[in-house]
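go over my protein:
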Amino acid sequence: MIIFDTCAVTCFSLSLQPFEYPVCTEEGVVFDLASTVVQFEKQICSFPPQKLEAKSLIKLNLAKNNDGKYYHCPVLYNVFTNNSHIVANKVTGNVFSYEAVEQLNIKTKSFKDLLTDEPFTRKDIITLQDPTNLDKFNVSNFFHVKNDLKVLDPDEEKAKQDPAYHLKTTNLETRETLAELYKEYKGDELLASTMKEPQAKKTDKLNAAHYSTGRVSASFTSTAMTPATTHEADAIADDTVRYQYVKKKGYVRLHTNKGDLNLELHCDKVPKAGENFVRLCKKGYYDGTIFHRSIRNFMDEFRPNLSHTGRGILSMANSGPNTNKSQFFITFRSCTYLDRKHSVFGRVVGGFETLTAMENVESDAKTDKPKSEIKIISTTVFVDPYEEADAQIAAEREKELQKQEEEKQQANIALKKAKEEQAPKTFKAGVGKYINPATM
């Protein structure tokens, strides 16, 4: 027994989907009127393969039962199924069951349409479906199926762009979640922004490096790069430029529930750690922070030439290389074994009695957590050398722009003067006006 898929009577042969406006060929191949335009453009027929013409299509008139759900024979009222023998009248396009046509037309030899009474011949009877001849409607034999030719529905292709199209079944909670997500979804904008080529950073006297961007050599050796023929100086990172102008110490006061601590920050030696601490203090990041460890004679947790020597050294806490964030600690005693492990970025210069009060707070023997709370109430930044550096850089850049503008103006004046000097001198009017009479 051979098993294969057949095309249902309510489906047209091109997309194998239910039809809306059915038409057929003289061979009984059913199409949908909405797809005939694409059919004509492709010049494809489902079975057998042949060229289609508009005049060869016959409009079909199918009747539905009282429920409006199923197609049926308008004479015998039996519902059409995949096992029904169905025929159509080529002249009128009316569709009947073969049983009705056989009993009322063929056997009686009265070839008049059973609905309109229009005359027709036996050759005008088109078989749309015959359960005894299924090879004709074997889907696997259809030309467009064999050659993988597909009809694209514009509406469906547009719908596929919506991610929700691929979700077959979703519950109410999922639909509400997706609806809320789509309101704030900016994935396409983010993707578009990443696809944009980053703008080249402008260079000036302050941030121009002594080496190039490398674009010329990169574009010469790689086809993926945009061709470049001009060497351009690379731009030094802004922080690298700024830190060259930081020559002063920074000063911050910590207001705690045990008193005030005055801190001197080594911004001139460790500018990155110093700026990190200053910015956090200005943001109020440490306001309300509680010291979570206090080890007597050791430290209160919170460059090679800077050492953990002496009392009141301010250093960064970390969990390994390149993990400095916002935690810092203040030493109660020298801890030179922490050198090259933790970054020293400051020291206590005032409020040692407060530091002593912190050290005298009893701590848990196992966790080193203070038994009474030690809290930073607020912070005050007295000296911020980074603001001064930014102001100095801005002033130098403004001065450089003014200098360039003056040089440009002087160059324009010199060019104008040179053009005037190069112009020939006029000695008289008319012919020979440029000839000097004294030389004659």
Remarks:
- The domain at 22-151 is CATH 3.30.40.10 (Herpes Virus-1).
- Residues 19 and 187 are 38 Å apart (CA to CA).
- The chain has eleven helices and 18 strands.
- The first helix runs from residue 36 to 42.
